[in-house]
Input
Amino acid sequence: MDDKTNIAGLKKVCDWKALKVKLINEPTDILWEQAFEDFLLARITTRYFEPINAISSIHKQQGKGFSIVAIYCSLIEFFETLKKGYEFKYPNYYDSNGSIVASKVNHDKKGNFYSLHTKEIFTDFLTENLPFSVIFKNLNIAEDFYTNVRCSILHQAETQSNWVIRDGESSDDIVFWNSSSTRPEIILRWKLYLNGMRYAKFKFIYFGRVVFYFIIQS
Output
């Protein structure tokens, strides 16, 4: 990748290479905080949060929520692989040692585990991270969301099995599950988690040195 290529807002490959040398030779909390703010957070903000805000500002309420949820679903997989220290190179996930990550549940008849699937990444995020884990208290609900929201939106441009997306206001919950025809149940709160990822004091501890591995390996 060319040194002048932008990789995080206006930050370029050459900027990351310079910081990377410092992180290797003299790592400090201040430098890791800089890596988080200037590269990871800037990258997510400019590529995802700001476009989401732009879509949210559209006054017409005629289906913009679908685009927002599609973007959120891609972030879910990114956040989970970042937390676990995995890198995706089609068709497999790799750990920081370069080994293929195995599934925890899917195996053949001989007991040999298959490689990790996107479905597990997605459902682990929903069941292991607040505030989602409060609502996704069991794997069945998380898998239902993965199949009928995430996959249905990305492949069919729709939701299925009574999942409903609305436009709403920026402060509203955006995804519902119609457990009956008359009373929709609020099932998901996006902004609590995402705002926490952006501003929480534990962000350095949470992401730590995986930033170094994921921003750009060069």
User: Anything to note?
Assistant: Residues 21 and 27 are 9 Å apart (CA to CA).
